[in-house]
Prior knowledge:
- The structure is a single chain.
- This protein is α+β, with helices and mostly antiparallel strands.
- It contains nine helices and twelve strands.
- It folds into two domains: 7-103, Phosphorylase Kinase, domain 1, CATH 3.30.200.20; 113-307, Aminoglycoside phosphotransferase (APH), C-terminal lobe (Aminoglycoside 3'-phosphotransferase, Chain: A, domain 2).
- The strands form four sheets. The protein has a five-stranded antiparallel β-sheet, sandwiched between helices. The protein has a three-stranded antiparallel β-sheet with strand order 6-8-9, covered by helices on one side. Strands 7-10 form a two-stranded antiparallel ribbon.
- β4 (91-93) and β5 form a beta hairpin.
- α4 (143-156) packs antiparallel against α5 (161-176) and α5 packs antiparallel against α8.
- 38% of the residues are buried.
- The model has no long low-confidence stretch (mean pLDDT 95).
Amino acid sequence: xxxxxxxxxxxxxxxxxxxxxxxxxxxxxxxxxxxxxxxxxxxxxxxxxxxxxxxxxxxxxxxxxxxxxxxxxxxxxxxxxxxxxxxxxxxxxxxxxxxxxxxxxxxxxxxxxxxxxxxxxxxxxxxxxxxxxxxxxxxxxxxxxxxxxxxxxxxxxxxxxxxxxxxxxxxxxxxxxxxxxxxxxxxxxxxxxxxxxxxxxxxxxxxxxxxxxxxxxxxxxxxxxxxxxxxxxxxxxxxxxxxxxxxxxxxxxxxxxxxxxxxxxxxxxxxxxxxxxxxxxxxxxxxxxxxxxxxxxxxxxxxxxxxxxx
Length: 310
C-alpha cells in the first residue's frame, strides 16, 4: 500500500536537502512497488520524492543508489538521489527510506520510432559500461522469483494453473538458453514508466531496483515486452527501431540472435510471474489478480521478425 505524503512530510524531507517552501505534493504515475511524488516548491522548481516501501531493510536502498551513481558516472542519464544534510542520500521515516531526486522534465518515453531508437542506443551503451559489485548476478524477477513461487505452492499444496505452467516453462527455458552469452549491466525492467523521454530522446533511465549483470540480449527483448506491443498486437516497426538503435552501438552475436526467441519468452514469463506473485500471492488484490494474463496470452503469438537478421 502506498504511503501518503502530507505537506508537513514534504517540508521535512526537502529541508534535509536545504530547501523550503513546499506548495504541493502530487503522486506520479507508475511505481507498483515504490512510489514517486512530485514536490512543487515556491519559486516554481520541483523535486521528486521516492518512497522505498518495497525495501524492508533501508540499507538495501544504498545499494540501488550506488547503481544509479555508477551508470551516471559512465554516461547513462539517470536521476541520482540528492545528498542530504545527514551525509547520506536517503533518510528514514517510520522505518522506510525516502530519497529526493531532481525533477526531470518530460514524460514517460513514447513508442515512436525515434524514441525507441534512442532507447536502443542508450541500452547498448549501458551494456558496454564496466560492471560493479553493486549489481547482482541474479535477476530478482526471473528464476529466483520462480523458485520462491514454487516453494510456496509446494508448502501450501496449492498448485494453481499458472505456477504449474511456469514450472514446466522454466525447466524448458533453462535448458534452451545457452550459457556464455555476452554479459553486461542490465536494467531488467525497461517499461515506459521507468524511462523519461522528450522529443524522441531518452532523457533518463530510472528505477534500478531490478538491475543486474546478465546476458545483454535479455534487456533488448525485455524492452520489447515493455514497449513493443500496440493494442494487444506485436509491432515489427517498434522492434526494428529498438534493434537499429541498439546495433548502432554494438552488433548482436550469432549466439544472441539464436537465443532471442527464448530470451523473449523468459522476459515475458518474468513479468507474468511478478504480476501473479504481487497480486495473487504476496498482496492479493481481486481487481489486479488477472493482470498477469496479458503476458500469458502473448506466449502463443508468433514473432517471426525477431529471427530476421537485419
